[in-house]
Design a protein that fits this description.
The structure is a homodimer. By secondary structure, the first copy, chain A, is of the alpha+beta class. The first copy, chain A, is built from eight helices and four strands; from the N terminus they run E-H-E-H-E-E-H-H-H-H-H-H. The first copy, chain A, has two domains: 74 residues, Glutaredoxin (3-Layer(aba) Sandwich), CATH 3.40.30; 121 residues, Glutathione S-transferase Yfyf (Class Pi), Chain A, domain 2. The complex binds glutathione (2 copies). Chains A, B: It comes from Novosphingobium colocasiae.
Chain lengths: 223, 223
Amino acid sequence: MWHIYQFPLCPFSRKVRLLMAEKGIAYELQSARPWEGEDRFFAMNPAGCTPVIKDPDRNIVLSDSRAICEYFEETVDRNPQISGTAQQRAEIRRLVAMFDENFFRDVSGPLLHERMKKRLVLRQSPDAKALREAMKLAHDYLDYVDWLIDNRPWLAGSTMSLADLTAAAQISVADYLGGIDWTTHEQARAWYLVMKSRPSFQPLLSERMEVIQPPSHYAEVDA
Amino acid sequence: MWHIYQFPLCPFSRKVRLLMAEKGIAYELQSARPWEGEDRFFAMNPAGCTPVIKDPDRNIVLSDSRAICEYFEETVDRNPQISGTAQQRAEIRRLVAMFDENFFRDVSGPLLHERMKKRLVLRQSPDAKALREAMKLAHDYLDYVDWLIDNRPWLAGSTMSLADLTAAAQISVADYLGGIDWTTHEQARAWYLVMKSRPSFQPLLSERMEVIQPPSHYAEVDA
Ligand SMILES: N[C@@H](CCC(=O)N[C@@H](CS)C(=O)NCC(=O)O)C(=O)O
Ligand SMILES: N[C@@H](CCC(=O)N[C@@H](CS)C(=O)NCC(=O)O)C(=O)O
């Protein structure tokens, strides 16, 4: 069975967990705190990031969440999440990159820094200005999701894909950390409620990260 | 024919150009300066980044360099750059991510900011401390390349792959900007000289970015 080295609020690990659950691939969670700089963790991934996945029986270790997702797409046929024509697949991967890079840089990354790292590692209080800025930028991304969902059934086209899993993973972390104001984002909200209702999402919604509690709407699927 | 919207020192555009040249796909360069925030450019790529590629005849627009590279791998069989078993392909993609994300964050990105953006956009002089830090971190990545080349013919295994193209693209930008000290990196240097000698690399080495000149060794392939 695959082991996933991760921590509950790592959005890249959440994406991998959603993909594995959608494809019916079993896994076991292993706790990793990349910021602690443990040698054993860096030996598995010199980039020093979660997630890392490992199959101890076959001694396979993989890292980088996009490389991992492509690996499962190539090795497990069930429920493909990067499918369609080459152009449709490029559209899926474009949106994956936008959420993993831009949304993480502007929204989920700063929220994790201010609300999680400052609390657990730096023992500082969050910077109100940085939090406001991340929440403001979150609106621009949700506007873009509204627009996509106005034009397509799912983010990248006519079927659910890795783009939806990636966006939902990143947004769920921002939502946990109180960074998302859903009012005025009807389409994005409706899409996200559908994502939250999927069985693959339930384990994520019930997890809690130590001292940080999510807002009450976070785990509600009928709100 | 494909159009690539880029600027000469964008490492992600360089990767796409190398891949297209290796696969024998013709392209035409179009100049783009993402930091100028032009509406026409954002309409093509809401993430606001270079490269963007466009086929005007078929009205196809693609962005995100990894999505673009996967697209060409899927549509053009010649000279595959993401090949082998699923595990080998995951290793290629892991290294692509390491250079595009970590090396860019630590080395080529800060060098571009200090030496190009500050000159062209902000009209400031570079910060000596930031330059020193980027050059120091470059050594760690070159140590890793030394180690890889000690263990394998090419970065990701027994054949040249997108990992080599990506690493060479990122390193070439850092080298242009004077950020690479090649002494003490014998293996990395030998590998990079082989990359520089490839026909696909020649157009990159002969280009210059306005007011910024590279060090004399930059374009030498027999040094
Ligand atoms: N390219 C990586 C990025 C993963 C990433 O940035 N993970 C964060 C945690 S959310 C991390 O481990 N950062 C290093 C740290 O916090 O020290 C992926 O897609 O897996
Ligand atoms: N995920 C993108 C990242 C590309 C990227 O970061 N490009 C830089 C230029 S090297 C950019 O356009 N930055 C925006 C700016 O400078 O305003 C890709 O792989 O294509």
